[in-house]
C-alpha cells in the first residue's frame, strides 16, 4: 500500500490527484493562503515562476522558466478577489519534456508580481505515477488545532474505486465506483491525536492516504533539570538530550523530531518553566545516537513551526535544494519527500568533538600592528560572477595570505543566512555555519591552519536585525514578537529590527559569541552597524547623536568576549561621533575608520590628507581604530583612477604605504593587493564579483603592488613595536594637498621613514631623522621603477622619488625583512638573510627551497633583487634581496 497525504494549500491542481497523463491541467493560486501581504488584494494579474522535479532531477528545479519572464504562458490570471489561475494543459508539452524515460514527480511553482519584487516561497504540487492513487485534503487546511474544530475531509482518487474514510481505524463513510468522497467531523478533545485515513480499492489494487488531526494541549509546568533553563540542545551525562527554547507569551510547544518521523505527537508536548520573567519550554529525549544527525523543529501553540535559535546546524527548506553535493558532503538531507515548509534545527551530539585541533593555544598578540584581510568566502575563492566560493577552497589560499604578510583575516558573515548567495548580513541562525560555505569541520580546519601561520581569524557578525525566517520572528504574528521592534527606531533599518534591551536578546548575543570563541576558536568579532544596537527609546529621532545605551551594550559584549578569551579582538562598525568612539576606544574596542573618500581623492591626483589613517589624527584614542581605504561597502579605489594602469598601481602602492606606515591596526579588502579596479555599481553591489584573472598576478604593475603590500605587511609583522601606542608618527607635508610628504616612525635605534611623491613628476622628498642616514639604512619597499638611493646624514635625509610613487627606508636595526624572526618560524637555530644578491643560511639544516612571490621555485640561492619565501626544513620566512 502507498501512504499519501495532502493538505489544502495556496496552489491547488485540477484534476486532483494530478498525474502526468492528466488533461487540461489548471492550477489555482489562493493569495490569502500565501501569507504574503504584497500579493493580496490586487486587481492585476500575477505570474508564475515554474518548473518540475523529475526522476532525473529529483531535488533540483528542471525545465524552469526564466525569472522575470512575463510571457503569456506564465500568467496567473485573476479570476476573483485573491484567486488566480494558470492553464498548463498537457504537462509534458507545457514543460517541453521529450525524454520518454523522464517523468515528472512534482510541479515547482512560485507566484510573483510582474516586477519579480514580491513573491511566495517555493511551493510543490505532487504529480503521481500512473495507476490508482488517492489523496486526502481537509478544510480548514491546518489539522493541528488549539480549539474544537469541525473539518470536512475530501478523498479523491485517480480512478473509479471503492472509497472509504476512517477515523482512528474506524470506518465512518464509504462510496462505491466513486472518485470523490467527503466526510465532516468535529474534534473537541484536547491532547488527543486522531488519524484520518482515506482508502481507495479497485481491480488495480489498494492505495491510502492519511492526515493526523492533533488537538494541542497546553504545556504543563515543570522545572528544567538543575533549575536554570539552558537554551538549545544539552547532552546529559546519561546520554539523553534536553531541548529548550524560550517562547515568551506562548502556552504550548511540541518538539517534532526526525527520531519520530516528524510526527507531531501529543507525548512530545514540552514542559514549561517561568524563570526571571521569561517562559522556557523544555523536554528530555532519550535514545539519540551521539554521532547521528537529528533534524527537528518546534511546533509553537499548534500554529508556528520554527527552528531552534541555538541550533549549531540548520536545514533550509528554501535553499538546501540548490546546494552542490560536494560543498558539505555528509550534510543531512532536508526531508523534502515529507514536507517543504519549515526551517529545521539539527542536533548531533559529537558535532564539536571529532575535529582534532593542531593549534590549541593560539594567542593573538600585537593587536595594534595587525593587518586584517577582509574577505567574502563566496567571492575570494569563487568563479567569476558565480556564488561558488567555499571554505575548503579558502584553506588552499592560506599560504597566499601568509606570503602576503597579513596577520588576521576577517570573514564576512558565515552564519546561516537566507539563500545560498549573499554577503551574509541576512543571518537567520546565529550559531549555525551556512552550509553553502562548507561543513563545521571545514571552518575549524581553516581557523586551525590560519593559526599555524600566525594568522588570527575574526568573524563579522550582525546583531541589529534578522530576516523573517529567524525563530524569534517566525513564532509570532507579524509585528507581535517581543524580540523585535514593530517600527525600526533608527535610520538604518533593514529586515526585522531587534529590540536590543529585551532581556533574552543580549543573553543570546553572549551565548553566540561564546559559542564561536570556544567551538571554533576564532579570535574576535567585527560588529556590523553598531549604530543599530541602541535601546529602542534611546534615539530620539537622531541616530547619529551620542548614545549611551550603545556604549554600555558594547562594553558588556566586550567583557563577555574577554571572559572567554582575554586576547580576543573586538571591532565596531560604528562610524559615530568622536565622544562615543572615545569611550569605546578607552574600553579596548577598535572602531572602523573609513578613509575611502580620501583614498579616492588621492588616486584621482587630488588633494587628500591621509594622516587620517591614524586614530590620533581623528581625535580618537591612540591605536583605537581599524583604518582602511576600502571595505566591502565602498567603491574600489583603483576603479576611480583616471591615469594609466602603471601610474594607477603606483598611486595604489603609495596609498598602501601611507596606510601601513601609520600606527594601529589596518585593514585590506580582498584583492587590494592586485589593485582591483572593476567599477562597483548600484545594480551589482552585492552580486558575485568578477575574479582577478591569472594575468593580474603576473602583470608587472599589479605584481609590484602585491609585492609592496607583502613587504610592508611583513615589516609590521616583524616589528610590531614600531606601530604600537607609544610610537608617535611624525607627518611632514600632509594636508589636503598634492605635495610631497613623509612619515617617520622612531623607537630607540630603530627608525622607518616613508617618502611619498603624489605629484606627476620626479621630486625630492626630505625628512628629519634621528637614526636613519645613508650609511645606516636598508630599502624596505618602493613603487615599481624606483632605483635611487637615500642621501643625507645627521638630522636630515632625502630621496628622489618618481612620480606617483613611494619609498620606505629603515635603519639596519629594523628586522623581519632581511632577517629571520625566530618566533615567526618556530624558533629554529638557523639564520636566513641576504647579501650581495645571494640568500645566506647560517646554521644546520637539511632541505631548502626558495620561491618568488608568484610561487615559482628558484634554481639556486643566487637570485635577482626582490622578495622571496625561503623554506628551510619545512619552516618558511621572507627575505628581501637587493
Helix-strand blueprint:
Blueprint: E1 11-14, E2 25-30, E3 46-54, E4 75-80, E5 83-89, H1 91-95, E6 104-112, E7 123-126, E8 134-139, E9 144-145, E10 149-167, E11 170-187, E12 193-202, E13 205-215, E14 232-235, E15 241-246, E16 253-257, E17 271-275, E18 278-285, E19 294-300, E20 304-306, E21 314-315, E22 344-347, E23 371-375, H2 377-380, H3 391-396, H4 398-404, E24 408-411, E25 415-417, E26 427-433, H5 440-452, E27 456-462, E28 465-466, H6 471-474, E29 496-497, H7 503-519, E30 524-528, H8 548-564, E31 569-572, H9 578-586, E32 590-594, H10 596-603, E33 625-628, H11 645-660, E34 666-669, H12 694-698, H13 700-718, E35 730-732, E36 741-747, E37 750-756, E38 763-768, E39 778-782, E40 791-793, E41 796-801, E42 806-810, E43 830-835, E44 838-843, E45 848-852, E46 866-872, E47 875-881
Parallel strand pairs: 9-13, 23-24, 23-34, 24-27, 27-30, 30-31, 31-32, 32-33, 33-34
Antiparallel strand pairs: 1-2, 2-5, 3-4, 3-6, 4-5, 6-7, 8-10, 10-11, 10-12, 12-13, 14-15, 15-18, 16-19, 17-18, 19-20, 19-22, 21-22, 25-26, 28-29, 35-36, 36-37, 37-42, 38-41, 39-42, 40-41, 43-44, 45-46, 46-47
Helix pairs in contact: 7-8, 8-9, 11-13
What does this structure look like?
The protein is an alpha+beta fold and 882 residues long. Helix content is 15%, strand content 32%. The strands form 11 sheets. The protein has an 8-stranded parallel barrel. Strands 1-2-5-4-3-6-7 form a 7-stranded antiparallel beta sheet. Strands 8, 9, 10, 11, 12 and 13 form a 6-stranded mixed beta sheet that branches. Strand 30 (524-528), helix 8 (548-564) and strand 31 (569-572) form a beta-alpha-beta unit. Residues 1-8 and 816-827 have low confidence and may be disordered.
Amino acid at each position: 500500500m502507498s501512504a499519501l497525504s495532502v493538505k489544502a494549500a495556496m496552489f491547488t491542481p485540477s484534476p486532483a490527484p494530478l498525474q502526468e497523463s492528466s488533461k487540461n491541467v489548471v492550477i489555482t493560486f489562493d493569495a490569502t493562503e500565501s501569507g504574503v501581504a504584497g500579493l493580496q488584494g490586487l486587481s492585476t494579474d500575477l505570474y508564475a515562476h515554474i518548473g518540475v522535479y523529475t526522476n532525473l532531477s529529483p531535488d533540483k528545479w528542471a525545465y524552469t522558466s526564466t525569472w522575470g519572464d512575463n510571457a503569456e504562458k506564465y500568467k496567473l490570471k485573476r479570476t476573483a478577489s485573491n484567486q488566480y489561475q494558470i492553464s498548463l494543459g498537457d504537462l509534458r508539452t507545457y514543460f517541453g519534456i521529450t525524454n520518454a524515460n523522464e517523468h515528472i514527480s512534482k510541479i515547482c511553482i512560485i507566484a510573483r508580481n510582474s516586477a519579480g519584487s514580491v513573491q511566495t516561497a517555493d511551493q510543490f504540487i505532487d504529480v503521481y505515477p500512473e495507476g490508482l492513487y488517492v489523496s486526502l485534503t481537509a478544510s480548514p487546511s491546518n489539522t493541528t488545532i488549539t480549539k474544537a474544530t469541525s473539518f470536512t475531509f475530501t478523498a479523491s482518487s485517480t480512478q473509479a474505486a471503492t472509497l472509504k474514510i476512517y477515523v482512528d481505524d474506524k470506518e465512518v463513510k464509504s462510496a462505491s465506483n466513486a472518485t470523490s468522497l467527503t466526510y465532516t467531523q468535529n474534534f473537541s478533545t484536547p491532547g488527543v491525536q486522531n488519524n484520518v485515513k482515506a482508502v481507495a480499492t479497485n481491480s488495480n489494487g489498494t492505495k491510502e492516504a492519511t492526515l493526523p488531526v492533533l488537538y494541542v494541549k497546553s504545556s504543563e509546568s515543570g522545572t528544567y533539570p538543575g533549575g536554570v533553563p539552558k537554551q538549545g540542545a544539552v547532552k546529559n551525562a546519561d546520554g539523553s538530550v534536553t531541548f529548550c527554547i524560550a517562547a515568551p507569551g506562548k502556552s504550548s510547544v511540541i518538539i517534532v523530531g526526525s527520531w519520530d518521523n516528524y510526527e507531531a505527537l501529543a507525548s512530545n508536548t514540552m514542559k514549561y518553566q517561568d524563570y526571571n520573567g521569561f517562559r522556557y519550554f523544555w523536554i528530555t529525549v532519550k535514545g539519540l545516537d551521539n554521532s547521528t544527525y537529528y533534524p527537528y523543529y518546534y511546533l509553537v501553540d499548534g500554529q508556528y513551526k520554527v527552528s531552534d535559535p541555538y541550533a549549531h546546524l540548520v536545514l533550509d527548506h528554501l535553499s538546501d535544494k540548490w546546494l552542490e553535493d560536494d560543498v558539505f558532503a555528509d550534510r543531512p538531507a532536508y526531508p523534502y519527500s515529507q514536507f517543504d515548509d519549515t526551517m529545521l534545527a539539527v542536533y548531533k551530539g559529537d558535532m564539536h568533538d571529532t575535529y582534532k585541533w593542531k593549534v590549541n593555544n593560539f594567542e593573538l598578540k600585537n593587536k595594534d600592528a595587525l593587518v586584517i584581510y577582509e574577505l567574502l568566502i563566496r567571492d575570494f575563492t569563487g568563479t567569476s560572477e558565480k556564488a561558488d566560493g567555499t571554505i575548503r577552497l579558502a584553506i588552499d589560499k592560506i599560504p597566499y595570505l601568509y606570503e602576503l604578510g597579513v596577520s588576521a583575516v576577517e570573514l564576512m558573515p558565515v552564519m546561516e543566512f537566507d539563500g545560498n548567495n549573499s554577503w551574509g548580513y541576512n543571518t537567520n541562525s546565529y550559531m549555525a555555519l551556512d552550509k553553502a560555505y562548507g561543513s563545521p569541520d571545514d571552518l575549524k580546519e581553516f581557523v586551525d591552519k590560519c593559526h599555524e601561520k600566525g594568522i588570527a581569524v575574526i568573524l563579522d557578525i550582525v546583531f541589529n536585525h534578522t530576516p523573517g525566517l529567524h525563530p524569534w520572528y517566525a513564532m509570532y504574528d507579524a509585528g507581535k514578537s517581543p524580540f523585535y521592534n514593530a517600527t525600526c527606531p533608527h535610520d538604518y533599518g533593514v529586515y526585522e529590527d531587534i529590540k536590543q534591551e529585551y532581556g533574552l536578546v543580549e543573553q543570546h548575543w553572549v551565548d553566540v559569541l561564546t559559542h564561536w570563541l570556544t567551538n571554533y576558536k576564532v579570535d574576535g568579532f567585527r560588529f556590523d552597524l553598531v549604530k543599530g544596537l541602541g535601546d529602542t527609546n534611546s534615539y530620539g529621532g537622531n541616530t547619529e547623536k551620542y548614545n549611551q545605551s550603545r556604549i554600555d551594550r558594547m562594553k558588556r559584549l566586550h567583557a563577555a568576549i574577554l571572559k572567554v578569551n582575554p586576547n580576543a579582538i573586538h571591532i565596531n562598525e560604528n562610524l559615530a561621533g568622536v565622544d562615543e568612539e572615545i569611550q569605546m576606544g578607552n574600553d579596548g574596542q577598535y572602531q572602523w575608520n573609513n578613509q575611502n573618500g580620501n583614498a579616492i581623492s588621492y588616486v584621482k591626483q587630488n588633494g587628500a590628507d591621509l594622516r587620517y589613517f591614524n586614530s590620533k589624527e581623528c581625535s580618537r584614542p591612540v591605536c583605537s581604530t581599524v583604518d582602511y581605504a576600502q571595505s566591502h561597502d565602498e567603491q574600489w579605489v583603483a576603479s576611480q583612477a583616471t591615469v594609466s594602469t602603471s601610474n594607477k598601481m603606483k598611486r595604489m602602492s603609495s596609498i598602501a604605504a601611507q596606510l601601513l606606515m601609520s600606527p594601529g591596526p589596518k585593514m585590506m579588502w580582498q584583492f587590494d593587493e592586485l589593485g582591483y579596479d572593476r567599477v562597483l555599481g548600484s545594480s551589482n553591489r552585492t552580486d558575485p564579483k568578477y575574479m582577478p584573472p591569472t594575468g593580474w598576478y603576473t602583470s608587472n604593475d599589479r605584481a609590484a603592488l602585491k609585492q609592496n603590500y607583502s613587504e610592508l605587511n611583513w615589516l609590521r609583522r616583524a616589528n610590531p613595536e614600531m606601530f604600537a601606542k607609544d610610537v608617535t608618527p611624525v607627518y611632514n607635508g600632509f594636508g589636503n594637498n598634492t605635495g610631497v610628504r613623509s612619515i617617520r616612525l622612531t623607537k630607540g635605534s630603530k627608525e622607518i621613514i616613508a617618502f611619498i611623491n603624489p605629484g606627476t613628476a620626479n621630486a625630492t622628498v626630505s625628512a628629519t631623522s634621528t637614526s636613519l642616514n645613508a650609511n645606516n639604512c636598508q630599502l624596505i619597499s618602493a613603487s615599481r621603477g624606483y632605483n635611487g638611493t637615500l642621501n643625507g646624514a645627521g638630522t636630515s635625509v632625502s630621496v628622489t622619488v618618481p612620480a606617483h610613487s613611494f619609498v620606505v627606508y629603515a635603519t639596519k636595526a629594523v628586522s623581519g625583512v632581511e632577517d629571520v624572526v625566530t618566533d615567526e618560524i618556530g624558533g629554529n637555530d638557523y639564520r636566513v638573510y641576504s647579501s650581495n644578491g645571494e640568500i645566506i643560511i647560517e646554521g644546520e639544516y637539511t632541505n631548502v627551497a626558495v620561491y618568488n612571490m608568484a610561487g615559482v621555485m628558484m634554481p639556486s640561492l643566487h637570485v635577482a633583487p626582490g622578495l622571496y619565501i625561503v623554506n628551510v626544513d619545512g619552516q618558511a620566512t621572507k627575505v628581501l634581496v637587493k
